[in-house]
Design brief:
about 260 residues, alpha/beta, 8 helices, 7 strands, about 45% helix, globular
Length: about 260
């Protein structure tokens, strides 16, 4: 099957399994088709799916990754000993683990093609990720607390694992508790990575998007948490601060 044939197959499968989607027409162009596929993956609840679908989805997403290209630590420049700064798409990073800024349900973003990192990671990894997250949450029987971390496979991403953490949500002013919880997000991820003997981890800007934590304050907390951890734990764990916006890049570049 060509990439276009795989794309159409995946779209048709997801439409057919949901009666409410029967009226959807498949667009002509691949750009619009890709957006539709991502939307259908985003809204799909965690339920059983065929082995054939997963096989075709995985080969399709792997080919899309090849087109985007992956980025390894050797492609990056050190900002400080053991710390890198990179601006770009976190789903391209070929490190041991990337960090996902999750919400308390831990099931990914259900808003079609939403701009959050949770949506981007789940879309690039494939629907197996939501299935694994659902399994973990059913075992836990409660929502994920702020400041903790969970680990899953990375599926169709170039990294080995995904670390999921729920950052604090800012409704008004930032409190000391908010700052402490955000620091705990970084520390929890670093400790979990060390438990799995990982050697490299890429952090997104936790809580600064939909959760409205001020960007500069969040960056200060992130850098301090990582530096403190690396001083206390001489385990060779290297950290990438991954940013997407120009403004965040300038903040981290200045602070580092």
């Amino acid at each position: 099957m060509t990439q276009t044939e795989k794309l159409i197959y995946l779209i048709e499968y997801l439409i057919k399994e949901n009666n409410e989607l029967k009226s959807i027409e498949i667009p002509i162009g691949d750009t619009e088709r890709k957006r539709l596929l991502r939307s259908l993956m985003n809204i799909r609840p965690p339920k059983t799916i065929s082995k054939e679908f997963l096989e075709i989805q995985d080969t399709y997403l792997q080919e899309e990754l090849i087109k985007k290209g992956s980025i390894s630590l050797s492609d990056l420049t050190l900002a400080q000993p053991g710390i890198y700064l990179w601006q770009g798409d976190i789903t391209r990073l070929s490190v041991d683990a990337i960090v996902n800024a999750a919400n308390s349900t831990m099931l990914g973003c259900f808003i079609p093609c939403h701009g959050c990192i949770d949506n981007a990671i789940h879309s690039a990894a494939g629907i197996e990720l939501r299935l694994e997250c659902s399994y973990l949450m059913k075992k836990q029987k409660t929502e994920e607390p702020t400041g903790k971390a969970k680990i899953t496979k990375a599926y169709n991403l170039p990294c080995r694992y995904i670390l999921h953490t729920v950052g604090p949500i800012i409704y008004d002013k930032v409190t000391q508790k908010d700052c402490k919880l955000l620091s705990e997000c970084y520390r929890s991820c670093l400790e979990l990575a060390a438990t799995y003997q990982l050697k490299s981890i890429a952090f997104c800007c936790i809580s600064t998007g939909e959760f409205h934590f001020p960007n500069e304050k969040a960056a200060q907390i992130a850098i301090q948490a990582v530096q403190d951890y690396q001083k206390k734990n001489q385990n060779g764990l290297e950290v990438v601060f991954n940013v997407f916006k120009d403004s965040d890049y300038e903040i981290y570049k200045h602070l580092l």
